[in-house]
Task: structure prediction
Amino acid sequence: MINSSLKTLSQMLASKQISSVELTQTFLTRIQQHNPAINAYIALDTDKTLAQARAADARIAAGNAEALTGIPFAQKDIFCAKGWKTTCGSKMLANFVAPYDAHVISQFDAAGAVNLGKTNMDEFAMGSSNETSYFGGVKNPWDFDRVPGGSSGGSAAAVAARLCAAATGTDTGGSIRQPASLCGFTGLKPTYGLVSRYGMIAFASSLDQAGPMAKSAEDCALMMNVMAGFDERDSTSLNRPKEDYTRGLANMVGAQPLEGLRVGLPKEYFADGLDADVAKVVQAAIAEYRKLGAEIVDISLPNSQLSIPVYYVLAPAEASSNLSRYDGVRYGHRAAEYDDLLDMYMKSRAEGFGAEVKRRILIGTYVLSAGYYDAYYLKAQQIRRLIAQDFTEAFKQCDVIMGPTAPSTAFKAGEKADDPVAMYLQDVYTIATNLAGLPGMSIPAGFAPSTDGKALPVGLQLVGNYFDEARMLDVAHAYQQVTDWHLQMPESLK
Ligand code: GLN
Result:
């Protein structure tokens, strides 16, 4: 059951083979058993969770269930959830109880889904290993010595260890896709503006986007049906008609369901810096796509090597502005002792933020300051436009872009913790997508051996054109019909 698809769980609930309370209890028991070691969840509230499960059972009995009614999900702790502690992985918000629901949370509630708890994450979503969390690191379920990726590391581990049916995450530069690659599951970062950011704690507002983290593309499609949609409370929410993201999945049958699909391989994504074993797995997945009927096209994204430097100017700039609200006055941590107002600001922020967050605030404030604004911030905005144009050109030649999600498999905890630049390079293939606002996905494509002989998951990245999520999900689903990488789970957690 823990390995079942959302569709199967939904059918089991509808046919009363299982109740939502029983299903929820199954996951709560697994959480009790494994979370002390994995540290995926940082807030649990069994009473609230089971009350939702009971309400879902009543709704199912009344005959007005929806696709996700009664199914238990994990929610990244970046989403405000009324009455739940909402910390964003920071000491700054360690005691903050959200007074309202984020749009994403209320969408799941309205669908009758069950909230299992809030998941661990890098502090304010800054990181690629979950090691910057105030609440400690998260173990990669495939190898407890390794990181799950970040920043959505808790959701990632919860999905991979089957401590939930599926989870939510957010992706500013790769935080859904990179952990999906390192933990071996399917994650989708939608087109910017498709999922409302209302109530989602801001990191870099022009890049942040929420999305599903699940076992399969089909599961992601069902979650997208709930998550996507216009919300007037987010000024960047796009007012578009609702879509059914599952609409094409059933057509992905037959010998060559992807006949005519043009897959672009950017030469820059297969160059220096890509681990050879990861490259092999990615190439094998592309060969599989050829068998499914896809035509492979060589493309170039000439400015892609600029995406990391551009991101590390723009994201910190936006973060420095967004995080100025944590001043000890309105909410969040306030220093116990201080001399005057300025001292209170300084001590509260010095105590409340961790090292990585402080580094970004410093960089962001610097690039926005008079005299440097033109040289850094403005320049980065100009190059951001060029990076987006690369994709516009590429999509004249292909329908979907494929390549590795991350340059390596999961690395050891501590390995990159003291080397910010090495950590930043984890997102070398994912960041450009955010800068352009495009949808990106990572799907399990196989395993590569680690130095100590363990098999570690490898993700294949798919990047689509704006609003092409439904097609990307089809393309991923076609692959998942002929492979079973997405169904694998760590032996020790079965
Ligand atoms: N790893 C990147 C960073 O540290 C991206 C994080 C994210 O997508 N939230 O900023």
